[in-house]
Design a protein that fits this description.
The complex is a heterodimer of chains A (about 550) and B (about 80).
Chain A lengths: L1 H5 L3 E6 L16 H15 L4 E10 L1 H12 L4 E7 L5 H5 L20 H14 L10 H9 L6 H7 L14 H5 L5 H5 L4 E7 L5 H10 L4 E6 L12 H14 L11 E6 L14 E6 L8 E7 L8 E2 L8 E2 L1 E4 L6 E6 L21 H4 L1 E4 L7 E5 L2 E10 L10 E10 L4 E11 L34 E7 L3 E5 L4 E7 L10 H6 L7 E6 L6 E6 L9
Chain B lengths: L6 E10 L5 E10 L9 E8 L4 E5 L5 E6 L7
Antiparallel strand pairs in B: 1-2, 4-5
The chains are: A alpha+beta (about 550), B mainly beta (about 80).
Chain lengths: ~550, ~80
Amino acid sequence: MDTLTDYGYIVAVVQVRGCGASFGTRKVVASRQEAQDGAYVVEYLASQPWCDQNVMTAGQSYNGQTQLGILSRKPAHLRAAYIGKTDLNRYDGWVRNGIPRAFGSRPDIDWGKTREEQEAVLERLVQETVPVDADPERQLLREAISEHLRNGSQVTAQREYNWRDSECPYFEGSFWDALSASTYLQDINASGAVVYLDGGVLDVFRRDTILLYHNLTLPKKLIIGPWDHIRPKLDPEPRFEILRLAEHVLKGVENGIMEEPPLTLRVMEYDFQNHRYSGPGTGYYRKENSWPLWEGRRDVFYLSPESRNGILFAGGTGKENVPAAVLSAAQPEMSGIVYPVVYGISSGVETDDLLADPERGACSRGMNFLTDPYPEDIEYIGHPFADISFTVLDAGEMPAPLDVDVFVMLSDFDPETGQAFQFCSGWMRSSLRTPIGTPSYDFLGLPWHDCRKGDNEYLETGGTYSLQIDLLPVFYRIRKGHRLLLTVTCSLDRTYYAGREICEMSPGTAAPVISFCTGGDKPCCLILPNIYADKPENT
Amino acid sequence: MEKNYNGRKQTHTYLTMPDGTRLSCVLFMPLKDGKEPEVPLPVILSYTAYECLYYAAGPDGTVSSRQGQISTWIL
């Protein structure tokens, strides 16, 4: 903040209706009402005597969504937008391949169920929220927050509207289409603003950030920094990129920002000694003109039932240690790896070390596959895929129709410290495995799953099913001597995975047993981009 | 790039939308040696569902002071 005001920018922070000290109600995230209000605010600010009629927006996550809404309304005085870590299509960002994410609750208010609970929450919010300067007695504030009682719930929507064409009473038509920036892409691209996108090498929306970049026809830039979604952003701090953009677009400073290659990509490596992924010794930046980078080859690693590498992961109290199986370039003989599905795994997509919880962590309760130590450093930059085939051996006590979710996670395993660092993940609901439909926006040629009502092809005992999962893009270097660790589970924390409700209500319910296919014509494998193999001189 | 300012003034007001709904607006105006700018300046807007101002606990643990803070969630 001081950085921006010191360089001569007025900073305005306006809260959407239904939040904080604002009046009004917020039925859903990223509504058209929010977009309309935001565009009005831009023009209001531009018309003030202290403003030189140049307005830029900035922010990440939810505040990226609000910016896309404003852009879609094309306010005349909006010159630029710095949009961080958000999605272009809300369904693809939040209900990826049919599995809803169980986060994003922060703007929601839990009012409770009874009138007494609501009054207690109201009182708490009135005390916690800062009123406007002219309202020291909080009378206006109390009125404003009382209106938030009619707010909708963001998380409930994500849990209940599982399909791309799910409808809700608030809209006529698809809930997700109404809330997605991709629906308004034509208007966004007609806004005339300069757009600078930022994404993080570990951010859950990094695929979406890249898709957003790819679908914009405005003057644009993209940086993928050493950032995740939540933790502090360093090396560089985004505010310095915001300042560079503002200096150029709002003040006309020739700082070269729009002349340099449009993509700035961090290639990261985890510092296992100091437990960090930004700062010295954690990677480098490369400037590129387009995405994806040229791929000379895709390296294939097959999942094998062998456990000859001798590495055991902690199995938790009273349980045997878990042997890690082999992940190898050689295709194994046809076989199967039996996996009794485990629900309630404590690891999530943002868990650094999947080995950290020996009781309920992904490595202890999932299947693990390790490569041999790498003979030299190698970088993976691009879109990996996981081909996962399995046979349902036993449906357990799960009610029909049967479904199984598959989560795939990649980690850098450091044999020296015995620690792992998760740098990539992807998932898919098995019943939505068949690529169906045509993308409603440019999906970079990645597998498209419409995930509409009626698309589910549920599972049966004895059936064999094949899933091709496009994992989140990677920007990672594995050091010589380290191993690549692939972990597969059928549940993951902070997702509404298939079977979650039943296992939470009736913990003793027998889960399905499946067998992952190795070898044969449907081998489970991991496919990684290799931008260095067979690289021609002029590429 | 030139740093021309060395302070800021914070104001918290309502902006009224065309339908009469009032939105919370926190404005941080650059100051130079305590004085407001003599010329109009560009505006950077964060339009958000998250809090910008909060009450911070003092060294003795009492919660009293009002602080303006732009978090990484906002910018």
